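User: Okay, second chain of the day. Same drill as before: sequence in, structure tokens out.
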Amino acid sequence: MPELKAKIDAAFDTVVSDTWVNAYEHVQEFEEKYMQQADACELAANAVDDVDGGVRDAEEGDNTEHDGSDVNDEE
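Assistant: Same drill. Structure tokens below.
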């Protein structure tokens, strides 16, 4: 383990503040894209919920009318 610690310390000594700033800015670009996509997905999810609600109501109505008896009568 002491060898690993020495390697890590040496690697951190080579990192300058510009490296950290560049990494931060790079990550920030991705975070902004992810947030935009998350906002778009949230809106799409709300739209799907509205559509699904209508479909479920129609399916429930069909089930109460037939109660599965049509399938048994045909046999």
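The chain is about 90% helix and 0% strand.

User: Thanks, on to the next one.
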